[in-house]
Amino acid sequence: MARPNVPIEVEPDTGIWSTDGLPMIYLPRHFFVNNHLAVEDALGEKVYGQQLYTAGYKSAWEWCASESVTHHITGLEVFYHYMNRISQRGWGQFTVMSLDANNGSSDIRLEHSIFVEHCGSDAGRNLCYMYSGWFAGSLEWVGQTTDRCYSLNSQEALCASNGAKHCLFKVRPI
User: Fold this and answer.
1) Any idea what the CATH number is for the domain that residue 42 is in?
2) Residue 162 forms beta bridges with which residues?
3) Residue 60 needs a FRET pair 20 to 30 A away by CA distance; which of 14, 75, 87, 153 works?
4) Is residue 67 part of a domain?
5) Number of separate domains in the chain
6) Beta carbons within 8 Å of 55's beta carbon, 6+ residues apart
7) What is the pLDDT of residue 56?
8) How many angstroms separate the Cα of 34 from the Cα of each of 16, 31, 39, 95?
9) H runs (alpha helix) in 72-97
């Protein structure tokens, strides 16, 4: 088993974990997924999906801004760094299949999603929609910082929990 590829620091007095100066939480995957599914059950998939999209978008934007400064990287290099980091952090393995830097459109493949790994490949519905806002937020950040100003929408087109070989996200201009 490989060691984490992300630097993890633990503040001895508070126990706060951080990576690149950003506070982190380390918890069992089942804890996160079970809480996610409970909130989805309470709110409904559509309402919860909209909330996650907005929160994920904002969080991706903030992460890209922070990582750009921390690592002295810009533009699409930040987006590819984001894809690498979320893969390294256990959310699944994300691969950028295509990307048009002129308009921000992209196809992103996801394998070994935490949701598919937890719920299985026969859930009968798309489960990985939580990630959609992440891609729009990170790519719109890139667009703004490179004077391209993308306006994007992202959605899960295929899901491995719904019979597909892998999950696929399509990011397209609005």
Assistant:
1) 3.30.1380.20
2) 122
3) 14
4) yes
5) 1
6) 133
7) 98
8) 23, 5, 9, 26
9) 76-88
Distance (Å, rounded) from C-alpha 116 to C-alpha 49? 17
Phi, psi of 94 (to 5 degrees): -100, 130
- Residue 144's identity, in one-letter code, is Q
**Owning domain of residue 150:** 31-173
Q: Residue 84 above 80 pLDDT?
A: yes
**Which residues make beta-bridge pairs with 99?**
106
Compute the distance between CA of residue 143 and CA of residue 164 in angstroms, rounded to an integer: 31
For residues 161 and 120, is the Cβ–Cβ distance under 8 A?
yes
Distance CA 90, CA 112 (A): 9
Return the residue matching tokens 């002129």.
Answer: 102
pLDDT for 25-82, tens place per residue? Answer: 999 999 999 999 999 999 999 999 999 999 999 999 999 999 999 999 999 999 999 9
Amino acid at 137: G
Closest CA to 93 of 120, 128, 55, 69: 128
Q: Is 102 part of any domain?
A: yes
Beta bridge partners of 167: 110
